[in-house]
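[Q] Does anyone have a clean structure-token version of this?
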Amino acid sequence: MNILGIETSCDETSIAVISNDKLTANLISSQDFHAKYGGVVPELSSRAHLQIIIPLIKDALKKSNLELKDFDLICSTAGPGLIGALLVGLTFAKGLSFSLNKPFIPVDHIEGHLYSGFLMEDKPEFPYLALVVSGGHTLLVLVKSFIEMKILGTTVDDAAGEAFDKVSKMLGFPYPGGPQIQKNAESGDENKIDFPVAETKGYDFSFSGLKTAVLRYIQKKYPDKSKMTQQDLYDISASFQQAVVKALVQKTKQAIENNNIKSLSLVGGVAANKKIREAFNELSHKYQKKLVIPELQYCGDNAAMIAFRGKTLYDSGKRFGLDYPPYPGFKFEDYNKSKSSL
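[A] Here you go.
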């Protein structure tokens, strides 16, 4: 079976091919030009997807030694994400499906991340606990099978990745902020500043208070930001990062203790953060649970996870018409509610 995966939810255009259960291509084109604007510009993102999607598909076909007619299944991210960006991949995939008379599977972007651990040689074991940490989402999910999952907790305000980007901007670092915070934190004292970890109900997360605490600290301590030293930047970065890690570990630890799981998975773009990965390795050893963290190329937005998730949905008997989803950018919760009618 040959499967084509398309991902265009934000500022990466990605095309992947799975052929006979083997990933033969996972091409990613990143839109680095957004850095000069301090964040992703939706309209520019959409245009960039339009320009690169066909050349990327041609490269993926060549790398996989396939032709379009050889595909048996077409999969594309359908949401959540930037509406204009999603429309590019989603409508392209639907058009391709129609022209080739091949089945089409719309994939929830978050579900792609949830199952990205299965792209590794050592795969998660059901039931497993997955922490999704990305620019727009922070979720704790109990994954029971390829068709059954339960959201245990989510963010009540900012996602972890969003907090990283906003604090990075406060400190004057270039976009994207996550890697900049991590880099500067390596030379800082993570115990220098006691930033708060929000108390939330259940397994939910909150990072807006932490973000505000950093802002207030900077305003009070450095009314003249020109007097902030390089070491100050290091220490603020390290202390902020440590507070985020504490929040993530605290809720995940609680979920591990209260749910019967066989393994643990850390996924999403922020899963590339070294400090978070180290903390989850410690959790894994403490509770004697297998930990699966995807390779860096599968942490960020990529089409390999979309192709794989599309395959598992198809293999589970899911079928979709070209009129589904009813709108691009549908949310994770809406997708789960709609499953009963599929």
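[Q] Thanks! Anything notable?
[A] The chain has eleven helices and ten strands.
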